[in-house]
């Protein structure tokens, strides 16, 4: 009984000590890297038409030019265009690796137009890269992109909650996004979800999700040693020592110094 208690305590300490080393796959946010078009670009053609018209009818051409200039001025001052301009400036700063200036430009973009969802998402992606997960979540929530049915951004929010050890919220958001069967992100999500269930001490749920991905290609499992390690811990928590030992030995075979793998094997045997 004492030996079993020590084994469980060893595992608990191991989980607490290595949360920050867990692999979390980044989400593809490539759509944020596209420059936003300004409304009213068609006015340029109207202006050109006015210039051409001047050669045939001077007064009509001048009138068309004046109207074009007024419309252009109105579009230029619209909140959507000002916001898009700041967004595009932010992209320029990002390309120069000037992230603080990029964030300032994005602050202005959403300040002028709170409906610019992609600006919020781009800002959140910068925070995510900086490891500022709370501000990442905050900006994703402000963007309202999660209101779309089955929004893929639920995965991003879930990973942020995972990284700040809020596993219940992580599980909630990861379960809110569904993927097609041929989408590899389905398996990537499930691997993280299984780890979240384990760390939230929902061991049966963790095993159910691990079983969904145990036979998929290793490329979707991230760090394979980590995958086998966490699967082994799940079996250990459920009292399935033989299966736990099998997973631990897979890890030990590849890296005998991996975390506390030797102690875990000795604790199971």
Question: What are the main properties of this structure?
Answer:
269 residues; mainly alpha; elongated; disordered N terminus
Strand content: under 5%
Look at the structure and give the mean pLDDT: 80
Radius of gyration: 27 Å
Low-confidence stretches: 1-10, 16-23
Distance between the termini: 14 Å
The profile of the biggest β sheet is: none
H and E order: HHHHHHHHHHHHHH
Number of strands: 0
The helical percent reads 55-70%
Query: Which term fits the overall shape?
Result: elongated
User: Number of helical runs?
Assistant: 14
Outline the structure in words:
The chain is 68% helix and 0% strand. The chain has 269 residues and is an all-alpha fold. It is elongated, with a radius of gyration of 27 Å. The protein is built from 14 helices and no strands. The longest helix has 19 residues.
Short summary:
The chain is elongated, with a radius of gyration of 27 Å.
Question: What is the element layout, followed by pairings?
Answer:
Blueprint: H1 2-17, H2 43-54, H3 58-76, H4 79-95, H5 99-112, H6 117-129, H7 133-143, H8 153-163, H9 167-174, H10 185-199, H11 203-213, H12 224-237, H13 241-254, H14 261-268
Helix pairs in contact: 1-14, 2-3, 4-5, 5-6, 6-7, 7-8, 8-9, 9-10, 10-11, 11-12, 12-13, 13-14
């Amino acid at each position: 009984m004492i030996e079993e208690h020590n084994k469980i305590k060893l595992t608990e300490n191991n989980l607490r000590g290595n949360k920050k080393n867990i692999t979390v796959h980044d989400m593809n946010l490539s759509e944020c890297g596209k420059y936003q078009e300004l409304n009213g670009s068609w006015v340029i053609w109207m202006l050109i038409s006015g210039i051409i018209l001047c050669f045939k009818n001077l007064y009509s051409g001048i009138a068309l030019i004046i109207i074009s200039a007024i419309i252009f001025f109105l579009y230029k001052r619209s909140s959507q265009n000002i916001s898009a301009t700041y967004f595009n400036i932010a992209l320029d700063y990002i390309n120069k690796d000037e992230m603080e200036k990029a964030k300032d430009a994005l602050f202005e973009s959403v300040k002028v137009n709170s409906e610019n969802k992609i600006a919020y998402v781009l800002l959140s992606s910068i925070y995510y890269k900086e490891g500022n997960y709370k501000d990442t979540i905050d900006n994703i929530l402000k963007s309202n992109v999660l209101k779309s049915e089955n929004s893929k951004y639920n995965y991003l929010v879930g990973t942020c909650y995972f990284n700040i050890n809020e596993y219940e919220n992580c599980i909630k958001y990861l379960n809110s996004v569904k993927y097609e069967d041929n989408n590899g992100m389905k398996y990537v999500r499930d691997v993280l979800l299984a780890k979240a269930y384990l760390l939230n001490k929902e061991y049966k749920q963790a095993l159910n999700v691990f079983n969904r991905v145990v036979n998929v290609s290793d490329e979707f499992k991230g760090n394979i040693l980590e995958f086998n390690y966490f699967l082994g811990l799940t079996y250990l928590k459920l009292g399935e020592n033989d299966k736990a030992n099998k997973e631990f030995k897979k890890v030990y075979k590849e890296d005998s110094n991996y975390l506390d793998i030797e102690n875990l094997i000795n604790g199971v045997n």
